[in-house]
Amino acid sequence: MQAVEVYTARDLRNRSGELLQHAHDGNISIITKHGKPSILAIPFDANLLQHGIHRVIALHMVQSHQLTLAQAAKLADMDLSSFIELLGASGIDAVDYPPEELERELEDALAACDHC
């Protein structure tokens, strides 16, 4: 899974096939107009129907290494352990970070638990 791809409104006209293929491949895209985000394109798939938009975005952002587990759990409006279970049910590894990032992730998780 790739990071969020950004397309312009002109790209939407000229490269719509590429945008559709990007979504078909399971990727999220942002379409901008005059440099500002205008449309969020999310693949319409079983995950979206089953889990809803917040959770699908959170899953995508963890898998593409754009959010930590704690941040994604917050976005998904779930506690950390439930979100980790959702990752497992979705076939996404909860931990696939290099060792230095894992330490930061554990610190974030512990801080999130302090607020529970």
Automatic annotation (TrEMBL):
InterPro entries hit by this protein: UPF0175, YefM-like_sf
Family per similarity comment: Belongs to the phD/YefM antitoxin family.
Protein name, entry field: Type II toxin-antitoxin system prevent-host-death family antitoxin
Lineage of origin: Bacteria, Pseudomonadati, Pseudomonadota, Gammaproteobacteria, Thiotrichales
